[in-house]
Design goal:
This protein is mainly α. It has one domain. Helix content is about 80%, strand content about 0%. It has ten helices and no strands. Helix 1 runs parallel beside helix 8. The longest helix is centred in the middle third of the chain and has 25 residues.
């Protein structure tokens, strides 16, 4: 029998993890302010789909294997760190563009793929999944309880990213962003750089 309280606890734990500031949420908020709701929702769907893949890995037992495979996890961290540094470079380059110069949606249809790659490049998403699932699940839970917890967390992930897309694409917030676009992009570049270097450094801290 599925324990609804455990499901709610797992969902709440995952929401706290998903809504907390990080490369995914920061990039989604920036894209929403710069390109609008429609583009951000596509990007957020990619982020959420990346979380789904990490969630399946976590509940299938592969997560435990990855955690014990030091070299494989280190390679994933290095690749993820390099991708974050690339995003930092792109954000830093955007600070040199004229204010309020948005990239038209028609110039790039790959927003979903960008979001997917961002979350897939960050193996810390796996650790977040395992931490959230461990809050509401235990070793005695059957496949139905685990599947239900996975479904709840997937729903929470899509909701959280959509919430960021909607909130940060409000006209007032977008207008405020346009007035200080270079400063925001500079801060985002710094955050991506810190996260990238931190992820690469953690790969060598064994």
């Amino acid at each position: 029998m599925i324990d609804l309280i455990s499901l709610a606890t797992t969902g709440l734990a995952f929401f706290i993890v998903a809504v907390s500031p990080g490369p995914a949420t920061i990039s989604n908020a920036t894209i929403a302010m710069n390109h609008g709701r429609k583009v951000s929702l596509k990007y957020g769907a990619g982020l959420s789909s990346g979380l789904v893949i990490w969630g399946v890995i976590a509940v299938s037992g592969m997560g435990a294997i990855l955690q014990t495979s030091v070299y494989l996890l280190s390679v994933l961290k290095i690749l993820g760190g390099l991708y974050l540094l690339w995003l930092a470079f792109l954000s830093a380059r955007a600070t040199r563009q004229p204010e309020s110069k948005n990239i038209p949606e028609s110039e790039d249809k790959r927003w979903f793929l960008r979001g997917l790659l961002l979350n897939l490049s960050n193996p810390k998403s796996l650790l977040a999944w395992m931490a959230a699932l461990s809050v509401g699940l235990n070793s005695n839970d059957n496949i139905y309880s685990i599947s239900a917890a996975l479904a709840v967390c997937i729903g929470v992930g899509f909701f959280t990213n959509a919430m960021y897309s909607v909130l940060f694409s409000i006209d007032g917030i977008m207008q405020a962003y346009q007035r200080c676009q270079r400063s925001v992009n500079g801060i985002v570049a710094g955050l991506f750089a810190v996260a990238g270097f931190g992820l690469i450094r953690s790969a060598f801290n064994r």
